[in-house]
Amino acid sequence: MATQPRINPDPASSAHERIYRALRTLIMHGEIAPGTALTLRGLGAEFGVSMTPAREAVRRLAAEGALTLSATGRISTPELSHERIEELASLRGLIEPELAARALPRAHIALIDRLRAINARVSECVTKQDAVCYLRTNMEFHRLIYLRAQAPAMLAVVETIWLQLGPTMRVLYETRQRTDLQRHHRAILSALTAGDEPALRLAMRSDVTQGLKMLEG
Amino acid sequence: MATQPRINPDPASSAHERIYRALRTLIMHGEIAPGTALTLRGLGAEFGVSMTPAREAVRRLAAEGALTLSATGRISTPELSHERIEELASLRGLIEPELAARALPRAHIALIDRLRAINARVSECVTKQDAVCYLRTNMEFHRLIYLRAQAPAMLAVVETIWLQLGPTMRVLYETRQRTDLQRHHRAILSALTAGDEPALRLAMRSDVTQGLKMLEG
DNA sequence: GCAGACTGTTTGTGATCACAATGCCCTCAT
DNA sequence: ATGAGGGCATTGTGATCACAAACAGTCTGC
Q1: Architecture of domain B82-213 in CATH?
Q2: A12-76: which CATH topology?
Q3: Is the confidence metric ipTM above 0.85 for this complex?
Q4: Residues of A in contact with B15 (CB under 8 A)
Q5: pLDDT tens string B9-38
Q6: Residue B212 vs residues A174, B133, B181: alpha-carbon distances, Å
Q7: B129 Cβ partners below 8 Å, 6+ apart?
Q8: Which residues of B have a CB under 8 Å from any CB of A?
Q9: Which residues in chain B are closer than 8 Å to A59, comparing Cβ atoms?
């Protein structure tokens, strides 16, 4: 691999940024099983770069909790304990209703229509039994609401939590019964339409907590 | 600077870890003003290492929001907008009461005594008009409570938020009147002693939100 | 048969270097 | 006096290398 002259000076497409985004998406969508081992040289080779940018991407993802570094520096996707899952679920249950409530005053009919469209795609994923598809479109649903809240710092925290849950959620949604996954989304849409903040907070909290609580005990 | 042979193989004291911890403490305690520029070579020289570990520490801190990377890659401590401060304050107001409530069943008299001792040191810092001292001991007070909650993921999120607020809080606490900074801490101690969860949640929320809300508007 | 030592390989860490882009400051023309 | 232009120092990026620790496989000795 010869030294590649830097063609593109755009910082948004620097080597470590590309690896970071690619890995982040894979992890958040649950496309990497918990406990999977990664290597810097492997990642570098996979993306056609040296170890340096791979290391930076890994460090960044580790700081966000998306990857685990062992005591000896080995890299792997995290295997979450039940306690940790409960904590992360509680955090979602605290923050996401707040984001929804902040989005509510700005939720016009156009937004709700787009949400309905995404929700239809969520249903497709459920009937197709496609966990990755489900996770991706479900996050899209939530993110579209939260973007309206104009609260980037809160959204960043929530996305970090999604990231930490990613590998585990995939396993989770493949082993559980999929009944009524859509009920909460319908309740969210109703509350958004009616402008009913307490109902919205409740529906959001249920949607977020329900799927994860069943892992405990 | 000649190549330093690796004396200490302990991963907890690797070069990038040392820089990370040192910088993190400085930032969280508000010892670096918002908008201060840093350089990789400068940090490396300061800690007697090359750019490589400095870069990793910076990348990690940037991922946590403790440092800002400009579009051209320049490194600086963040200058938070009022909106962002409000968001971070709201997050604290959501999460920290929950942590306190989780700690409550485990809060024995020994813990409360230690909290009283820390609180006395907080008072000293206030009378000394020492902002850094105040921030450090105040965080110690909160962290000691939250450690009892046995919720490492939640605590990590909260500490990340403290980290983001660090440089700004210093400025904040130097320009405001310091009346009744201790009132909330006393209320927290009372509620802990009485085992009164609703009062504890309320006192914690007030303590956390009060100081930061005055920046808006 | 099996546990423990050993060896070759893999892997993360940190240093160093080349490079391009950025930022800064001085100069000069208007 | 001021703003535009140019050259130089500074800075982040990525590649490459040396090194030591960790891991995995085998082999030996009991």
Answers
A1: Up-down Bundle (1.20)
A2: Arc Repressor Mutant, subunit A (1.10.10)
A3: yes
A4: none
A5: 455 679 999 999 999 999 999 999 999 999
A6: 43, 18, 12
A7: B178
A8: 11, 55-56, 59-65, 71-73, 83-84, 87-88, 90-91, 94-95, 98, 150-154, 156-157, 160-161, 164
A9: 56, 59-60, 63
Enclosing H/E stretch for A76: strand A75-76
Q: Tell me: the pLDDT tens digits for A93-152?
A: 999 999 999 999 999 999 999 999 999 999 998 888 888 999 999 999 999 999 999 999
> Same topology for domains B11-76 and B82-213, yes or no?
no
Between CA A134 and CA A121 the distance in angstroms is 8
Which strand D bases fall within 7 angstroms of a protein CB? 10-17, 19-23
Q: What are the extents of the domains in chain B?
A: 11-76, 82-213
Q: Which SS3 state, helix, strand or coil, does residue B50 take?
A: coil
Contact B98 A95 (CB under 8 A): no
Distance A15 CA to C23 C1' (A): 23
Domain B11-76 in CATH 3.20.20.60? The answer is no
The string of pLDDT tens digits covering residues B77-121 is 999 999 999 999 999 999 999 999 999 999 999 999 999 999 999
Strand partners, B38: B75
Q: What is the reported pLDDT for B172?
A: 80
